[in-house]
Design a protein that fits this description.
By secondary structure, the protein is of the alpha+beta class. The protein is built from 2 helices and 2 strands. The chain has a domain at about 5-65. Helix content is about 50%, strand content about 20%. A hairpin with a 2-residue loop joins β1 (about 65-75) and β2 (about 80-85). It is rod-shaped and about 80 Å long. The chain starts with 6 loop residues before the first helix and ends with a strand. Keywords: Membrane, Transmembrane, Transmembrane helix.
Length: about 90
């Protein structure tokens, strides 16, 4: 499978945002000293920011490509095949 690098980041952001939305809008309880709705709002914002960063990483990794050079040489004992791969990021 050839998935972009940012796919996992996007999925993580969706999970965090969903958990935050549930805490913000679906949980109806009151506590002292800790607000579940505020924690949910924080998770929702962090999830949305993570999704945006994942999209940026995915788009940036789209410019990545690898050049592969293959050489086959005849030797007295048979043939030798050598493969050289170069990535444009490293």
């Amino acid at each position: 499978m050839n998935r972009p690098i940012g796919t996992g980041i996007i999925v993580f952001g969706i999970i965090v945002a969903a958990a935050g939305a549930i805490m913000k809008y679906a949980v109806t309880t009151s506590t002292t000293g800790f607000s579940i709705t505020e924690a949910g709002l924080i998770l929702l914002i962090v999830g949305i920011v993570t999704i945006v960063l994942g999209i940026i990483v995915t788009l940036a990794s789209g410019r990545r490509h690898t050049v592969t050079t293959e050489q086959v040489q005849a030797t007295p004992s048979g043939t030798v095949r050598s493969v050289d791969s170069k990535d444009n990021l490293g």
